[in-house]
Amino acid sequence: GDRVAEARVGEPCDAGLAVQQVCDVQDGFAQGYCGPENQCRPLCTSDEDCPTAGETCRTFAFDGDLGYCGPEPVDG
Prior knowledge:
The chain is mainly beta. The chain has strands spanning 22-26, 29-34, 40-44, 55-59, 67-71. The chain has a five-stranded antiparallel beta sheet with strand order 1-2-3-5-4, with no helix packed on it. The mean pLDDT is 85.
């Protein structure tokens, strides 16, 4: 329960929880991930999946094929 945010893609996630959260769950499948700035961001498999200019597909360390659309990190 505390790993699933009620937010839809583009909406703010539950800021009070300090765990990684999936969001925008439809028919049992997450469509997003609560990424930087605690916002529900779309899942992706490549940069082409990211609809917002300046965002890239930030892959999860445990997978490598799946990630979420997010801004480039400022630390490179």
